Every structure is written in structure tokens, then in C-alpha cells.
Amino acid sequence: MKGNMHLSIFQKLFSIRNCVDYKLIVLFNIKIKIPFRYLNHFYIRNAKKRYGIIPNKIVFSNYMGNNYGCNPKYICEELLKTNNFDLVWLVKDEISKEDFPKGVRIVPYQSKAALKELATAKIWVDNYHKSFHLSRGGFGIKSKEQVFIQTWHGSFGIKKIEKDVPSLTEDAIWLKYSQKSSEMVDIWVSNSDFETNVYKNAFWGVKNIYKWGHPRNDVFFFSDEKILKIKEKVCNFFNIDINTNILLYVPSFREDETLNFYNIDFDKCIECIKSNNILNGNNKKWVVLSRLHARNSKSDNIISESKYILNATKYPDIQELLVSADIAISDYSSCIFDFILSGKPVFIYAPDIEKYNNERGFYYPLSETPFSIATDNSELVNNINHFDMVQYKQDVEKFLRDKGNAEAGNASKKVAEFIITELKKENKND
After folding, report:
1. What is the pLDDT of residues 95-133, one digit of tens each?
2. In angstroms, rounded to a whole number, what is the distance separating the alpha carbons of residues 235 and 238?
3. How far apart are CA 220 and CA 19, in angstroms?
């Protein structure tokens, strides 16, 4: 009793407690709040002083701590062919660690340890801003000796991004951290003349753009044998037969979080695909894999599942779904501009095209793509019924040519070679 009494009196005089984004210190009933960003700033400085920049350490991140995927994955895969690197991946706690290969260290994205890894790594590879870590005290996190490689996550995508979107720049906090992150980038990886121009206009302080292609799109240039292995992996994941045809539905999100535009009549679509013989005599069974955007991933019952309509939102790597699919349907997702490299059919279903264009904006009209456009189910069915593969392939070739396409299947290798060269410079300096 006496011990507890003295303890409670002492706690009233002095205590330290962690709150959501600050540390609370109580001293003689005076409350002092110290934001973690200030404490983390000193933590970062001490980490740099103690460990310095560690040669051969490369820190990866995919879209604010998402799973093992997109451009960073395929760069990492290339580097894993040798064992000379300390490969670190920053990932959200809820992401399955089983998706990551041996040779990759996993560190929680939102942890203090992540700040230490970033502060001491020679190379950063990301496809999004470092806004989160900057907001946690990371304004001094990057040194001149470090190299930040920005691969972004778009393509020949049609929807406007970053400072080209007025509603984004109106957010002062978003603007502050996005601009700082953009200005930290040392090299940008582009896949076309079109994307290079988007980078120059939509980001801040852009320099050193390399038109190498997107590493994630190397998958479309894999051998038939390797692509078949990927499809086997996908089919095993969803417990479907390897001989099943896949219709991949990949809608984008809406800024206002509206959910009433995901209303495709898949029964009629599949029926028309079969009757129109789009795949030249292929009468195999069909399955629909529906993959929602990350910003819709926690919304329930957007698309009703059935025996042949399966939720693929949590599948770790969308590129594996794309290379396994036979047909794709989307609205404004940039992934169909990756899928276009396969030469397989794409159909646009965009009931809110005018509203979306007014709110988000397009870099060029959807009508300038090789894809037919539908604003309701009857138009979608009609477009499937009148699909002409020969004309479509000609339109795809023209589209890629007009955009200054640089995809050649060797982007991962080019980025990896750049990284290895940078690390050799570091070792020479040592």
C-alpha cells in the first residue's frame, strides 16, 4: 500500500506517456507535448552519425508500404540474382510477409526502424512520395550521398496526377510533403516521351529522367514458358483450372469515394465474348477476377462474388494478373496501359466519364486510346460484339508509337545496372 501510494504521488509529479503523434510529459502537473516528428528528427541525426551511409544497403517501398509488387519488386528481383546487397523492404504490418523472397529484410513501414533504414541506406527505390516519413520528422533524412530512384506507378496513364490536379494542390499539407519528396529524387524512370513530359510538368524539381521503360512491364516480354508458370501460380492461388480464360476487371477509384459505378453485367459480357469468338475458337471456361484499387480495397460488396466472379484485390502483384489475363476491362486505371503491351483486348466501361474528366481531368481524350468506350452495359456488350482484333492491334501499335514507347523488356536490368554502378562508386570512395 505504501509503495503504491508513493508511486501514485510520484506519477503525479512526473510521468512520460506515448500518445497518437506526440509524447506527453507531465512535470508537477504541467503537461508538455513533444511531437514525435521532433524526436524522430534527432533520432535520424543520431542514426546517421552512428552508422553513416551503409554501402550496399538498398531500401524499397511500394505505394506507402504495400505488398511486394510494382516496379520496386522487379528491380529487387534483378538484384537478388547476386548476394552482394542488403535489401530492405518497408511494408505495412497487415501485409503478408510470406510474399517476400529470401534475401529481403522486412521492416514495418510506419516504424522508427524504417527511419533508421532510410537514413543509412545508399539507395532508395520507391514508386510514391516519401510523404509519410517526411511528416514523421524526416526532413533531414536524405543526405547528398544517397540516391533516390523514383519509378512512380503510372504508365501512359490518362488521368492527371499531382500538381496537374487542382484539388490536390489545395491541400497545403499534401503539397508540402509531396513537393519536398519530389525535390529529393535523384533519378526518375520513365517508359515513354509522354510520361517524361508528365514528370516534368506534374512534379517539382524534376531532373535526370531515364527513358528505360517500367521494370514491372518486363513481365510482358518474358518467355512463353515463364509466363505459363506465372499463370499456373495465379490459377493455383484462386483454385481454378489452368485452362480457364481470365477476364480481369480493374476499375480505378473515385475522389468522392462513390461506389455505384462498379455495375458491369459480367454474364452478358462473357456470353458476348464467346459468341463473338474474340479469342479465335477458344471455347474454354471463363472466370472474372475483380481487382479494386487500393483506396477501395476495404469496401465490402462492391462487386458480388460467385463461382466465376472472384475477388482478386488482395493478390499481391497485379502484373501477374495482367500477364495471365486474356481480356481486361477498366475505366481509368493506368494498368490497362501496361496490359496494352500484351496486345490482348481491353474494353473501357466508364459510366461517369464526363464527371470524372471535370473533377480529375485527362491528359488526352479516352477516344484517342485504342480502346472502345462504353457508358452503360448495353454499349459495353455492343463494343464486345463488334470488336475487331486486326484493327485493334493496328491501333495499339500506332498508340505506342505516338507516345514514344520505350518498353523493351530490359528496364529492370537497366535500373539494377545503374544501382550497381552507384554502389561501386561508393566502395571506391571507401
Report:
1. 878 889 999 999 999 999 999 999 999 999 999 999 999
2. 5
3. 47
The CATH homologous superfamily of the domain defined by 223-402: CDP-glycerol glycerophosphotransferase, C-terminal domain (3.40.50.12580)
What one-character-per-residue DSSP string does 315-338 give?
Answer: -S-HHHHHHH-SEEEESS-TTHHH
CB 398 within 8 A of CB 382: no
Q: How remote is the C-alpha of 320 from its chain's centroid?
A: 14
User: Do the two domains 52-214+410-429 and 223-402 of this chain adopt the same fold?
Assistant: yes
Burial environment of residue 149 by CB neighbours within 10 A (0 to 12, 13 to 18, 19 or more): buried
**Contact present, 273 and 247 (Cβ < 8 Å):** yes
Domain boundaries, the chain: 2-35, 52-214+410-429, 223-402
C-alpha cell at 160: 492527371
pLDDT > 70? residue 297 = no
58 close to 79: Cβ distance less than 8 angstroms: yes
Rounded to whole angstroms, the Cα distance separating 170 from 153 reads: 22
Per DSSP, 28 falls in state T
Q: What's the pTM?
A: 0.88
> Which residue matches cell numbers 448495353?
378
Quick check: helix, strand or coil at residue 410? coil
Listed residue (385, 315, 318) closest to 345, CA to CA: 385
Dihedral pair phi/psi, residue 165, rounded to 5° = -110, 105
Task: Say if CB 317 and CB 69 are below 8 A apart.
Answer: yes
CA distance 64 to 75: 17
User: Which grid cell is 393?
Assistant: 492491334
User: Domain spanning 52-214+410-429 has what CATH number?
Assistant: 3.40.50.11820
pLDDT tens-digit map of 167-205: 888 899 899 999 999 999 999 999 999 999 999 999 999
Tell me the three cell numbers of residue 165.
Answer: 490536379
The DSSP bridge pattern shows strands 327-330 and 346-349 to be parallel
Q: What pLDDT sits at residue 300? A: 53
Asked if residue 3 has pLDDT above 50, the reply is no
Mean pLDDT of the chain: 88
Burial (CB count <10 Å: 0-12, 13-18, 19+), residue 129 = buried
Task: Kindly write down the DSSP assignment for every residue of 353-384, as one continuous string.
Answer: HHHHHHHT-BSS-GGGSSSEEESSHHHHHHHH
DSSP designation for 159: B
Range from 138-152, 254-268, 309-323 carrying the lowest mean pLDDT: 254-268
Output the furthest CA–CA distance in the chain (Å, rounded).
89
Q: Give me the DSSP letters along 280-304.
A: SS----EEEEE---GGGTT--SSS-
